[in-house]
Design goal:
Length: 320
């Protein structure tokens, strides 16, 4: 659906109320940078656009929508965490109707007084990975993008680093490097890990092979960056030591599994697509799907018998 078609449907009242409200409040006119841009509204457009990278109307609107999605994700993640982990609708909230004081006591009991040397080492390495921004001028980062293409499309010719062909993978424009502002290099590493470790699931999601798909699908690659960022926030990995319940449980998994974050990413991506299909979602509902994915993932991490990513109920989705 092109933006011209969408505007015509808006004019004639053919778009439902929820999508109309989203379009009117997403800030499309003031946002133009991909993923975690932080510019003032009055000059963001002029700073974000490139003279030599003009997109068609649909791609421009998609880019703005994903920017809006990330901005909302940052602003709301604290509220989500409180509601999901201890709210009355959460797994813990249903099983343990705790007072505020009891909740704090539970967190103190769950949080280890000290991490083992192995946990410290693995957490430190993971946090170092988070600090690496994607740099399109670095040869090793260019090579990683090329590796992702070869894994995604074996047998096809490798395109130039700026090419219309990258849009087929779900990048927003002809230059994938512009999409990494929010996720950093680790989000590309996550996609590569997914393609190598679970190639069948990766291909099914890339080519949207499961279920009855929406007319307006989520872009695969950019969705992957969103999932990396969501996990980083959910697990509280940018603090010295994670203090969220999900983060604490993740530290226990990290003790047993060095690549826990990357494996959890694959589970989260597959879970998101399953939620997408279950909700019969379309493009503008991706944010809601990502929220529900986070909710379900936190619930599964809270299960007592989970000591590795493979113990998560949703892990079975990767091995269908």
């Amino acid at each position: 659906m092109t933006s011209r078609t969408l505007r015509r449907r808006l004019h004639h009242g053919d778009v439902d109320g929820r999508n109309r409200e989203h379009l009117e409040t997403s800030g499309f006119d003031s946002l133009s940078e991909p993923l975690l841009a932080n510019y003032d509204d009055d000059n963001s457009v002029s700073q974000g656009r490139r003279v030599d990278d003009i997109w068609d109307d649909q791609r421009r609107m998609e880019r703005l929508h994903w920017t809006s999605l990330f901005s909302e994700l940052i602003a709301q993640w604290t509220q989500w965490l409180a509601n999901i982990v201890f709210g009355s609708g959460s797994l813990i909230g249903r099983l343990l109707p705790l007072s505020s004081g009891t909740q704090n006591e539970l967190s103190r009991k769950l949080f280890p007084s000290s991490l083992s040397p192995l946990q410290e080492e693995r957490l430190r390495y993971l946090q170092q990975r988070l600090e690496v921004p994607f740099d399109g001028s670095r040869v090793e980062h260019q090579d990683a993008l090329k590796q992702l293409w070869r894994l995604a499309y074996p047998g096809r010719d490798l395109p130039a680093l700026k090419s219309e062909l990258w849009k087929e993978m779900g990048w927003q424009g002809t230059d994938p490097s512009t999409d990494f502002r929010g996720g950093g290099f680790i989000s590309l590493e996550n996609l590569i890990f997914f393609a190598k470790k679970y190639p069948d699931s990766f291909q099914r999601l890339l080519h949207k092979q499961d279920g009855a798909r929406a007319e307006w699908e989520y872009p695969f690659a950019v969705a992957g960056i969103n999932i990396s960022f969501m996990l980083i926030q959910m697990l509280d990995l940018q603090s010295g030591k994670p203090s969220s319940l999900a983060g604490i449980r993740f530290l226990e998994i990290l003790k047993e599994e060095e690549m826990a974050f990357d494996n959890l990413y694959c589970v989260a991506f597959q879970m998101m697509d399953a939620q997408w299909l279950a909700k019969r979602a379309s493009y503008m509902e991706f944010n809601d799907v990502l929220k529900s994915t986070r909710t379900q993932l936190e619930r599964e991490l809270a299960l007592e018998d989970v000591s590795s990513v493979k113990d998560l109920p949703a892990y079975t989705l990767l091995n269908r």
